[in-house]
Amino acid sequence: MTDQPRRAFDPTTFRDKPVSFVRRSGRMTPSQERAWEESRGDFLLEIEHGPAATSVAAGQHGNPAEIFGREAELIVEVGSGQGHQILSAAAERPETNFIAVEVFRAGLARTVIRAADAGLENLRLAEVNAPELLEHYLPEGSVAEIWVFFPDPWKKAKHHKRRLISADFARIAHRVLQPGGVLRLGTDWQNYADHMRVVMDEAPGFERDFEGEWAERFEGRVLTAFENKGIEKGRAIRDLSYRRV
Questions:
Q1: Which residues are listed for S-adenosyl-L-methionine binding in this entry (predicted)?
Q2: pTM, entire model
């Protein structure tokens, strides 16, 4: 467990911090809307929202053992998109619990449909701002790994403040990761990869979990459309991994 103090949570001022996304509704087909209404109760965490549509209301806390009905290693994917990565991982690792965090409902709906079709019991979804879930909803030291693969690079310099990976995110990740837990990062944007490495190299309580300039490609990561697009454009795919010490 970390000895870092837990910050008081005031939902009326949280949005003074820039979030790392611009929320778009995304269109769902009538069949997807029906499946969302019918099956989301089996997967979507019931988290009361604060003033912002994806914020976590004050006092909202979740116990992973109660959420999943068992004690097991927990992995959280931040920005799960349509769920390709986490669905594959949950199917291959039934002994592990997974939480997918995503703010785009269309992506969550597609994840729900595939999870229901696969009969997955070790996957839950959270429709909230990921840093709030990690800092205020999940218990301290409760997560084995956090995955952040191909987050929005916010390419323009004036938007860099909106990048997810920051000193504050490192602080939050340190709080929620168990001792020895790992933060895995991946991007196809070199400037963001350099930024991530500088931030995490300087982050208190973390050490590199790789040798050389970059980590080897995480073997547990499936090839998604985001990664394929970067490869097709000739961009280098950069992996990083940092262990909580």
A1: 77, 102, 129, 152
A2: 0.88
